[in-house]
Amino acid sequence: MQSKLLKIKLNPNSRNHLDTLISYMRENIEFPKSEMEQKGYFWDSVFYEKGDDFECIYIVIKSADFSKIMMDERELVVSPFRDVYEKFRTTCWAPEPYIDLEPVFCFNSSLTFSG
């Protein structure tokens, strides 16, 4: 299993919107799960950070093979999750692109190095 860490800068006062998104995902897990399965990766963890002049989230995503994930979302069979996610993204993401932080190493389930 491969891992990536994404850092996404948020607009000010985005925490409530993030909580709404996560609550929706918890209550309707079948919808984000379906979309993530189609795309070939899943969100493992989401972290929130707030400083005096910034807010951001860090999302750990995992895939069996990132070279095989869906790149053309026009192929995606969307679920009701898509509207909730897009509302969060368009309302809360800062205009700059997210940062794909370089992994140094990851342990796999047998606690051996996987990269």
Short synopsis of the structure:
By secondary structure, this protein is of the alpha+beta class.
Describe this structure in words.
The chain is an alpha+beta fold and 115 residues long. It has helices at 15-27, 30-39, 81-92, and strands at 2-10, 42-50, 55-63, 99-101. A hairpin with a 4-residue loop joins β2 and β3 (55-63). The mean pLDDT is 89.
* Unreliable stretches covering 5 or more consecutive residues: none
Give the helix level as a range of percent. 25-40%
The secondary structure category is: alpha+beta
What is the straight-line distance between the termini? 10 Å
Please write the string of helix (H) and strand (E) elements: EHHEEHE
Strand order of the largest sheet: 2-3-1-4
Name the beta content range: 25-35%
Give a count of the beta strands, DSSP E runs of length 2 or more.
4
Itemize the secondary structure elements and their pairings.
Blueprint: E1 2-10, H1 15-27, H2 30-39, E2 42-50, E3 55-63, H3 81-92, E4 99-101
Antiparallel strand pairs: 1-3, 1-4, 2-3
